[in-house]
Amino acid sequence: MPDTENNSDTPFILGWEEWLSLPDLGLPALKAKIDTGARTSALHAFNIEKFGTADRPRVRFGINPIPERDDIEVICSADVIDQREVTSSNGERESRIVIQTNVRFGEQTWPIEVTLSDRKNMAYRMLLGRQAFPAGTTINPTEGFNQPELSFDLYKKSLTNAPKRPLRIAILTREPNNYSTRRLIEEAESRDHVIETIDTTRCYMNIRTTAPEVHYDGKTLPRYDAVIPRIGASITSYGTAVVRQFETIGTYCVNGSDGITSSRDKLHAHQILASYKIGTPTTAFASSPKDTKNLISIAGSTPLIVKLLESTQGKGVVLAETQKAAESVISAFRGLKADFLVQHFVKEAAGEDVRCLVIGGKVVAAIRRKAAAGEFRSNLHQGGVAEAVKITKSERETAIRAARAMKLNFAGVDLLRSSEGPKVLEVNSSPGLEGIEKASQRNVAGKLMDHIERSVRPNRTRKSL
């Protein structure tokens, strides 16, 4: 029996069917059948998956709270308190996960145990057995709806006050022990979430119109609440295919496959930024050896930057200080059949750039990176040093616009401070956290978890109510 008793002077009477809510699960309105002939209570659930640890098992499941409306879904999480054999009304035995949650009728609330079972063919999404009622409860089997009426319209309302729940998060990475991954795990676990690292290259996909899946080491991966892609440049094509598969399943991906693909192709990225009227250094691209001199003239006078299209961490970036040097570098890159671009060198930047970390359309941290002595690249991987910096309103707006143009929720936007205003040098879809967290003293991993918690809604409404 529940611990809470009805101590009010007014008799607590339930009919054979009632409106109720399960506030801990983010379910503001359910119609339930009251069945004193049943001992155990049951809640409709699908995609039931256990996760967590042996000493604290949890369960993630979906529910369609409105009968006949499979397009209205709520995703719930709860602690598992038991798993037991239950005999249904038709005599079938089933092993069910048991959770404890609060049930609310009007102003009265108390904890109950509930088993999870697929009730999609039942008229009621919930059944309350006799164990669920506190002492003093009267059940009137000839009447229904003795308690205050609720409405399914409650699912239309904002979910900003929805209960927090433990999330199941995956990081797609080939570097499970680097600083960025460790910080994300640390921050997620401090918030009671369960987070797992997945080697992107070990994923493979079952592509079909119904129930698409992602497999990993011989097993089907569960349904995650969110995926954080940390896709290395060397596996961009396959990595984005894996991200697309998670998107197909309906998993929230912090950065989508389109944004990752666009940001990795330097030429495509500059074309996108230009289409949004976002300032970048003058850039030229061509494929014919006969175009070398004209290509250089388009980019401007020397010195020039010659950059591989898929360069990262400052690798594959060359400073050509003279016309002859530029022609030699271009000739060498073409001889390797490598795709590259030629870019105006912003002298007034003086070997410095500004890295703005954008999460969810806001700049959450910014640092200034200075190139090492004798070096023009300010990347920390090339010996550059970083320090906290106060950015201007124009720089902040440019960074936000750049991340939005690239369709990235989590991006490192590199800016050059030119005489004409901020110029976007690069938009990174998998920015490292170590340099910016240490230099800015900001909890960037925490800001990313804030964004995930806001973005992973309990409701996924595919049609209007």
TrEMBL record:
Keyword Ligase tagged: yes
Any one GO BP annotation for this protein: SOS response
Cofactor or coenzyme needed: Mg(2+); Mn(2+)
Superkingdom per UniProt: Bacteria
Entry-linked Pfam families: RimK, Rimk_N, Zn_protease
Gene Ontology MF annotations: ATP binding; metal ion binding; ribosomal S6-glutamic acid ligase activity
Record domain ATP-grasp: where: 270-453
Cellular component GO terms held in the UniProt record: cytoplasm
Keywords for this protein: ATP-binding, Ligase, Magnesium, Manganese, Metal-binding, Nucleotide-binding, Protein biosynthesis
Keyword ATP-binding: yes
Family: In the C-terminal section; belongs to the RimK family.
Protein name: Probable alpha-L-glutamate ligase
